[in-house]
Structure formats: C-alpha cells, structure tokens
Amino acid sequence: MIHKKPVLGICLGMQLMTDRNEEGGEVGLGWVRAETRCSITGPDLQAIVSLPPKWYKDFPNNESILGKIYNIYRLLARKEKTSNF
C-alpha cells in the first residue's frame, strides 16, 4: 500500500490482502499484516457448511443459492512495531 489510499476488501478480497493463508500456507499480497485462518474445523465445519442461510427463501429461485453462502474465515492480525513518541 505504497500510496496510502483506502482500500476495501470483502470476503475473498480481504483474504488475498493478508500475508498468508493457513490452508496450504499460500502467500497473499501482504498488504495487511495478518494471516487468514479457518474459524471452524473438523465435524463442526461440515455441519455449518450444510446449513442453508436463513434468508434464502426471500430470493426467487432459491434452490440455486441454497447453502452456497457462508463465512468460516477470520483474520489474525500481527502486531506492528510502534515508535516511542
């Protein structure tokens, strides 16, 4: 972020801006000093992924989006060194 311009990253965009992803250790863009991590693992992950969103019935043709939108990732920020002013 050389020019210090505001940037908004949503979902995958925010994950790409971090230093790395814990799944496979893939390297990100490194714009945000953080690591992307999965919040849930094991049997709980499958249980949540299979649940349909509560708002799906508000959309036409809801069968096509049923169970496709969920959020299980979080960012773990790294501490920045601060100056002693």
UniProtKB/TrEMBL annotation:
This is Glutamine amidotransferase domain-containing protein. Residues 3-21 form the Glutamine amidotransferase domain. Pfam families: GATase.
